[in-house]
Amino acid sequence: MLHFARRVVVEQTTAALAQLDGWIAAEDQREAERRQGEAMWPPAPKWLIQQGLNRSNIDAVHTGDCWAAAKSGRCRPATREQALDALRRQVPACVHCRPDTALSIPA
Predict the structure, then answer these.
(1) pLDDT of residue 94
(2) What is the per-residue burial (b if ≥16 Cβ within 10 Å, else e) of 77-95?
(3) Residue range 85-96, pLDDT digits in tens
């Protein structure tokens, strides 16, 4: 009887280990795909220009990581020169991320 019980335990353990190995392999595959997807994303912009509701005027200039810009949903990427030009044309700087300070423009 004890030999039979041992065989059952070995078979169950082998099946459980095979199932765990399958789960581990699937999780490793998902993680590799996630990392590959992240590597394919373009780099985040350093500067953002927020357009007005009618998309014809410019409302504000933001840094690329500004939380307020992410909430507005009306921003487009901009180069450093475009951000500087907008600020020089009296487009308001975001009061949260202060791109004018980051660009060394006096307030």
Answers:
(1) 92
(2) ebeeebbbebbeeebebbe
(3) 999 999 999 999
